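Appendix B. One record, verbatim.
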Amino acid sequence: MNKFTLEHSLGFMLGVAHRRSVHLMNQLLKEYEITTEQWSVLFHIYSHEGLNQREIASRAYKDQPTTTRIIDMLEKKSLVVRKPNPADRRAYELFLTDEGAHLCRLILPLEEKLNADFAEIIPEEDIKVFLRVLNEYHNHVQKQQEVHEQKNSSK
């Protein structure tokens, strides 16, 4: 009999931890009427004002249509504005409104505290190793995804 269980699957356990973390963060964000998906885009605009939508999508690890939908929602909430790029009239640069910047200043400490709470169970000397391994895992999965996409597109 096979002794493998899902609890020994890296992908499964990362997914479980991710879903629980997102659920907890969504609970914290509820009073601000923003989701974790919206927060991730808003945070990247806060950190890199003036970038275009494609650059924000890349930094937030989201596809273009999802990013467009999120930015539309953030714009409706008066948290971000699109301004024409002077060098490329087809592109827009993204900026926070005063309300968006204020919201980021309120949410960022919550994110930092939640991250510190999560990291509390990991010895300080292991945090760098943990993050390095997660990044290596992410890069490996991304390469595997690209290989599979190439195989599928050549069929």
